[in-house]
Write a structure and sequence with these properties.
Distance between the termini: 23 Å
Structural class: alpha+beta
Strand content: 5-15%
Shape: rod-shaped
Length: 745
């Protein structure tokens, strides 16, 4: 699962890119270290070869002295000559050497030994020969008296009064040199320490074991700093080949160098551990390895940073679609599989929501238009945003409202409803003379309210309201064959005046105002009122319409307007009569709204002594009526909703169950039922029914063994694929997976 995660994939991909410099660094390291290693090998071997040649030069000098020693002074080469001459000659030759060495002369068969420091008895000289060299005392006597060719051996000997028994190498030369009958033996003694210094002059940087063998493969010199097995050291004398070799000894890698001098055939061997051999390149190794490590570390850090940066949009997308637990939901998938599945589900959901929204759009438009008619604007910017979302164009400056009702007096329910729908279909969304019309049904009155947004008040000198009313009256008559009555409110500037124009149109539609006329303006109703001797006909109608529509503010304003109208009659009995007529209107309106009025309340309302007192009591009584009406409306809506919800809970599983069916059963319009249902449950009718069906389906999945197809039809779905899509959208898994998960859990 970790490898399938896109963070891991991003990390690995960036890590691969980041490791390219590391790989190049290793290639650079390998090629350079190999080249430097070869240089070190060549340098070290060259140093060993120079050291070997130096030893060859030393032996060559000794051989040269041996060749010339007898020829120097023929007279001094006979036994018995003055000791001082031989001592002086030996001292001269020792001084001519470029290396520290002791020269000893022994006449064969004699009893004396000559050195640069004096003469000593042979017996005393022989006692200095120890048994830890190549020769014992007896074998040394035989060797020194019988050699015919130059010979080199190891001895623990030093022919001097001090520092006796110091280890070293003795080179024995017969003199006269290469003569058939040598008369004496010339000995060159090299101290072990001097040989070591000579070798270290060339191999000072190498901590190694050094061995020198003569041409007979006898070991002349050994210097060991590394503990090596004895059998391995013994086999070194038989080592073949010249150059650098690698051997593994007891799991440790060693480098062996062997060189042979050209003249004397000396074999010089160096044995060094790999670390010491390449110690010169150790700092370079460390620097390169540290650099490569830092590059690798930087590559890992950059890979993590870049992976996080690239993964952040994916993570944000997962969070936004609620995918924080995507690993638990489907361990076999990765983020993009999850996002793709979510996208498909969301696309299907959006498509379904789009269809639902299109179905519900008339309800949304109706809701916004109703709020405009009721004067519930909210914040101006908020209302404008809502209108824009609902595609309601009220951007023109002038607005007015007119109400349409049937004029033929037919009251059959089916006929009314059908004709109201015809009127709605004709008017709603129509555009005429730069005016936009939006219609909605007034359910209780069986009328249609039309909001008009006009660019100008007059068109070709005619009132735009008259042109619009004539247009729709003629169009409906020509199209459907029946007449309509139209009451028109005043025209205002700004959508916040729509409510006032609507109330004015509602006042005009009162039967006793419009009479037998099919078209009437609010201004005409006002003029009729002025002709009726201070009688507040229009104000009373405005009051009644405000109460019926639960518009408290406009009802109180109508009380003030009626009082102001009555005050114009002056101080006369007519004023009191008009006030009682207004009281009669208030009581009548309360009765129509089923408000229970007590006799004491009527007496209280009628017991006024002044017009101002009448106004205050009328306002107070109006406040009470509005409150009671609101309570009765709430109770009625609550009872109706309760009945609808209970009915929905009992019948949601029926195949033919629908919004239209429930609306017909409760004798209300589908639009009104949908609004009432949304306000009561916070769900749309369709969403609530879907929720009930899914809950019932989950219950059947867990408690029964029924197949999914059976459950689909049992909960009211006709289309199994639609049910499966809804179930997966809601639960995130299929019905079968839900049944398995719940039963296991």
């Amino acid at each position: 699962m970790l490898i399938k995660s896109w963070f891991s994939k991003y990390f690995i991909s960036h890590l691969i890119i980041g490791m390219l410099p590391v790989v190049l660094g290793f290639i650079f390291y390998y090629t350079n270290i190999m080249a430097v290693s070869r240089e070190v090998e060549n340098s070290n071997f060259s140093a060993l070869l120079q050291a070997c040649n130096e030893m060859d030069y030393i032996t060559g000098e000794m051989e040269n002295i041996a060749c010339h020693f007898w020829e120097t002074d023929q007279e001094a080469n006979t036994p018995g000559i003055a000791e001082t001459v031989l001592v002086r000659r030996l001292s001269f030759y020792e001084g001519s050497l470029n290396f520290p060495a002791r020269i000893i002369l022994y006449y064969r068969g004699g009893s004396l030994v000559y050195t640069s420091e004096g003469v000593m008895p042979y017996t005393e000289f022989e006692r200095t020969v120890r048994d830890d060299g190549d020769l014992t005392m007896s074998s040394f006597f035989t060797q020194i008296n019988g050699i015919r060719y130059n010979t080199s051996v190891k001895l623990s000997f030093y022919a001097a009064p001090i520092n006796r028994n110091e280890p070293g190498v003795v080179y024995l030369y017969p003199v006269p040199y290469l003569d058939a009958m040598p008369q004496a033996t010339l000995c060159f003694f090299l101290k072990h320490e001097d040989i070591k210094k000579t070798m270290e002059n060339y191999l000072e940087e190498i901590r190694s074991n050094l061995y020198i063998y003569n041409d007979k493969r006898n070991n002349l010199f050994s210097y060991e700093t590394i503990d090596l097995p004895r059998d391995f050291v013994q086999r070194l004398s038989g080592l073949k080949g010249v150059g650098v070799q690698k051997r593994k000894i007891k799991g440790t890698q060693f480098i062996i160098m062997r060189s042979i001098s050209e003249n004397m055939g000396l074999s010089c061997i160096s044995v060094t551990s790999t670390g010491n051999f390449f110690i010169r390149i150790l700092p370079m190794r460390i620097i390169l390895l540290v650099s490569i490590f830092l590059l690798a570390l930087m590559g890992v850090v950059l890979a993590v940073i870049m992976a996080k940066r690239n993964y952040k949009p994916v993570l944000n997308l997962l969070k936004n679609i609620g995918g924080s637990s995507w690993k638990n939901e489907n361990p076999k998938s990765n983020e993009f599989d999850y996002i793709l599945n979510k996208w498909n589900v969301m696309d299907e959901t959006n498509t379904e929501l789009s269809h639902t929204l299109n179905r519900q759009r008339p309800l949304i438009v109706y809701s916004y238009l109703r709020d405009l008619l009721k004067g519930e604007y909210g914040a101006r910017g908020e209302m404008e945003d809502c209108l824009r979302e609902a595609n309601i164009n009220l951007s023109a400056p002038w607005v007015f409202v007119f109400i349409i009702a049937l004029a033929d007096g037919k009251r059959e329910s089916q006929t009314l409803s059908r004709r109201i729908r015809m009127i709605l279909h004709t008017v709603d969304g129509c555009v005429f003379k730069n005016c936009w019309f939006y219609a909605l049904e007034l359910l209780l009155e069986q009328q249609v309210a039309v909001i008009c947004n006009a660019v100008e008040q007059l068109i070709d000198g005619a009132d735009v309201r008259l042109l619009a009313a004539d247009y729709f009256m003629n169009r409906i008559q020509e199209t459907y064959g029946f007449n309509i009555r139209v009451g028109i409110g005043r025209i205002y500037e700004g959508i916040h005046k729509i409510n006032g124009s609507f109330m004015e149109a509602a006042v005009v539609m009162e039967d006793y105002l419009i009479g037998e006329k099919n078209l009437m303006f609010f201004e005409e109703a006002v003029k009729i009122n002025e002709d009726n001797y201070y009688y507040p006909v229009v104000e009373q109608s405005m009051y009644i319409q405000s109460i019926k529509r639960a518009n408290r503010e406009m009802a109180l304003e109508a009380v003030d307007d009626m009082t102001a109208k009555i005050s114009e009659a002056g101080a006369s009995p007519i004023t009191q009569c008009l006030c009682f007529d207004v009281i009669n209107t208030i009581i009548k309106t309360a009765g129509q709204l089923h408000c229970r009025i007590k006799v004491a309340d009527i007496k209280e309302l009628s017991g006024f002594t002044s017009l101002e007192q009448f106004r205050l009591k009328a306002r107070q009584f109006t406040e009470w009526i509005c409150g009671e009406f609101e309570k009765s409306q709430e109770d009625r809506n609550s009872r109706l909703n309760s009945e609808i919800i209970n009915y929905t809970r009992k019948h949601f599983h029926e195949i033919q169950f629908s919004l239209q069916q429930v609306a017909a059963i409760f004798d209300i319009s589908p639009n009104y039922l949908s609004r009432l249902f949304k306000r009561e449950t916070s769900y749309t009718f369709v969403d609530y029914v879907s929720m009930l069906r899914l809950d019932r389906a989950k219950e059947l999945l867990v408690k029964t063994e029924k197949q999914v197809k059976e459950i689909v039809f049992e909960v009211g779905y006709m289309d199994a694929s639609s049910f499966l899509r809804k179930f997966k959208t809601t639960e995130g898994i299929t019905p079968g997976q839900y049944r398995e998960r719940v039963r296991k859990g």
